[in-house]
Specification:
139 residues; 3-stranded antiparallel beta sheet; 42% helix; 3 strands
Amino acid sequence: MAGADEFVRNIDELSRQVGTGRVTAGCIVDQIYAQNQHQNLRFRHTNGRSHYLGGPLLENSSYLMMRIAGSIIDEGGSHLKREMINVAETLAGYVLRNAPRDPDLGDVLANSGSPYVMDEGILIYKRPPIQPREHEDHH
């Protein structure tokens, strides 16, 4: 069966190009008050929202998964890792657009997203945040 042999070769090539491990994308928001601003539903934000990262991630999860699926293999090979970097940057964009703005602190929280991608537990991409972590004595 020539078709079966070709299928196995193609699957082997796909595995070689894509890999067989776990690739994850994420975004860290490393400010002292970031988690409280994200999780606390009692806050009434006039500019921004609670769940400023998790909310948009859930709302757009189907779209993000389609982007990732479409990057796995095409006639040019696999673009999975590049697309995972794009997804990580998209997550940072969610923070930038949705994090609450504070009249005293401005866009500190919004500018604090640091996207990253891990491949089998090894960091392959990390962009530092526009706004680094503030020291505790500022609050």
